[in-house]
Amino acid sequence: MGKTIVGVIGAGQVSAAGYQVAREVGRLLGEKGAVLVCGGLSGVMEAACRGCREAGGETLGILPGPEGKEANPYVSLAVATNMGHARNVIIAHTAQALIAVEGEYGTLSEMAIALKLGRPVVALNSWPGLDGVMEAASAEEAVALALGCIGRMNNGLL
Amino acid sequence: MGKTIVGVIGAGQVSAAGYQVAREVGRLLGEKGAVLVCGGLSGVMEAACRGCREAGGETLGILPGPEGKEANPYVSLAVATNMGHARNVIIAHTAQALIAVEGEYGTLSEMAIALKLGRPVVALNSWPGLDGVMEAASAEEAVALALGCIGRMNNGLL
Amino acid sequence: MGKTIVGVIGAGQVSAAGYQVAREVGRLLGEKGAVLVCGGLSGVMEAACRGCREAGGETLGILPGPEGKEANPYVSLAVATNMGHARNVIIAHTAQALIAVEGEYGTLSEMAIALKLGRPVVALNSWPGLDGVMEAASAEEAVALALGCIGRMNNGLL
Amino acid sequence: MGKTIVGVIGAGQVSAAGYQVAREVGRLLGEKGAVLVCGGLSGVMEAACRGCREAGGETLGILPGPEGKEANPYVSLAVATNMGHARNVIIAHTAQALIAVEGEYGTLSEMAIALKLGRPVVALNSWPGLDGVMEAASAEEAVALALGCIGRMNNGLL
């Protein structure tokens, strides 16, 4: 069986509280051995990568621009798409489940495309009230929900 | 000055009432000489193309698959992307304003990406309560709002 | 039956002779009622669009950047992809046959992807000796070869 | 400094000799600590991934379809693009240098786009006579040429 891949989505600008919760999400994913995939830039993306790397995890950044070097320093593997926001669709296809932390329109767009593709989506202080999104109250709960869904999918239960 | 291009977005399956309102949106755009751009498939996309063509207008279908022939019969020009949902991002870049009719996650994703790109977005019985979206009560109002925004942008007022 | 769509591919910088031959290709396509699709920028793309419009034809520009306004002035309909060179793949999917005029690596890449997709490819002073490419000695011959292939495909003969 | 990422490109069907040379290329890249990026499917892609993994290396597969599970079994990290051949452009942006092994039109298209982007391209029994491509006589030479170019680029010498 392949690696477990979890997307973390959120804006390039984030509150101090959002940075800490995203970092904690990343840390927990790294501890569990999941690969973190994100948009590879700053804000929530950087915080989550940082936490994941601090826990020894692997981080995949799917970048909007033409060169891998625009990745934040906590991306362990950078994919340069040169496709702008269309790279969000690639993140949704690549992740087996996604966790949204805070976020703006770009995050909403990615949550919606993930739902359209049938990927489980967990929200942490993100867009409320979206049908089909699981709301979590903490980083621990968000990671548990995402990994639980992937486990059930792998066992054919979801 | 180039052509006015308005996106009409919505699901591939639509209620009878939604079909009629989308067709009316298309008809009004055709009468005003605007080019209609959409995803080129069935439901809201077909209804809007049909109305636009019935009024003598031009319809551009940005398709998810590899061949133009999957377009609905009211698409006057078919662009085959073979990029699935990533073609929604192309629609948002190509349209100067967008009108959402009803719709599901795919529509929400497209509204969010259009807002992210700074395109005016009008909603007709679509996702409610999105910051920055103009809600319209009729096809006439939706088209007037979209064309009004494009006019103000062309005059440097928006 | 839908419109006949022919791609014209070539570099953004072109010799004076190349400009004239591309303009002639465009003119002949416009006279025959074919839609011309290209990358929408300067050089061969501009020359071909210019000729096609001068003959009353329709020109579709599939642009690499985020806004339609970067199109050359002879593009009648601009699709903004924001996908850089990946837009070349969209041109190959959208065209029913392609004509290459002169050209560099970008043109070669597009010829190869079109061949991979099974699209007929005609070369006019372009990359020589590519298996499966039809070489033409004049704009007239190039357009006749491209339209002939499309006609045979439409009749199920190719 | 980030990881060294080398693309290996070639067809999904390969000769027995081509399979062995691609596997050897992968093995050498893995031994040198380079990450191998490829299209993630069969043939040359599978052979190169296999060799790289056998040497303890990391392999990134940029897939054309919607799900990571279509990757060959030697891909350690799968990115699902759902973008068909447009994923080749992503490989060219992501790799710092590319090695082509045998190959058909798809490979030619990728070599051309890589040259267009200024990436060093090495050919092993692949398309001959392309300006700007370095031809190698063995897997050892191909890997030495690719890594040499990346080293000089990292030192600002290329």
Structure, described:
The structure is a homotetramer of 158-residue chains. Chain A has 158 residues and is an alpha/beta fold. Chain A is built from 5 helices and 7 strands, in the order βαβαββαβαββα. Chain A has a 7-stranded parallel beta sheet with strand order 4-3-2-1-5-6-7, sandwiched between helices. In chain A, helix 4 links the parallel strand 5 (97-101) and strand 6. The mean pLDDT of chain A is 96. The B-C interface holds B 2-3, 5, 35, 58, 60, 62, 66-69, 71, 75-83, 89-90, 93-94, 96, 117 and C 2-3, 5, 35, 58, 60, 62, 66-69, 71, 75-83, 89-90, 93-94, 96, 117.
Class per helix and strand makeup of chain A: alpha/beta
| Distance between the ends of chain A | 17 Å
Poorly predicted spans of chain A = none
Number of strands of chain A: 7
Largest interface: B-C, 27 and 27 residues
What is the strand and helix layout of this fold?
The structure is a homotetramer of 158-residue chains.
Chain A: E1 5-9, H1 16-31, E2 35-38, H2 44-54, E3 59-63, E4 77-80, H3 87-94, E5 97-101, H4 105-116, E6 121-124, E7 133-135, H5 139-154
Parallel strand pairs in A: 1-2, 1-5, 2-3, 3-4, 5-6, 6-7
